[in-house]
Amino acid sequence: xxxxxxxxxxxxxxxxxxxxxxxxxxxxxxxxxxxxxxxxxxxxxxxxxxxxxxxxxxxxxxxxxxxxxxxxxxxxxxxxxxxxxxxxxxxxxxxxxxxxxxxxxxxxxxxxxxxxxxxxx
Length: 121
Prior knowledge:
Radius of gyration: 32 Å
């Protein structure tokens, strides 16, 4: 997988998880069942309080799911960024090693040329 592809994948995952999280937070109708769309008359035993607690619980669950999705997208981004950075550091260190060897060869070549010039004189 190339760096550009990995970045695009992360960006898509992050955007989708953020949209999903925001959608869960601001539209609880999206995840409610069709049976829950009508409002029944409150029973006389005071279970209306339970209904409000269930709504609060649903809201808490949606917040938890949105938080989890966002955290998961951030984790994927962190892992991908770290992997890309490690690969880049490996390439850069290999390139630096090649350049160092090239400079050593050039230095040795210059020394040999200098020795030849000294012998000629």
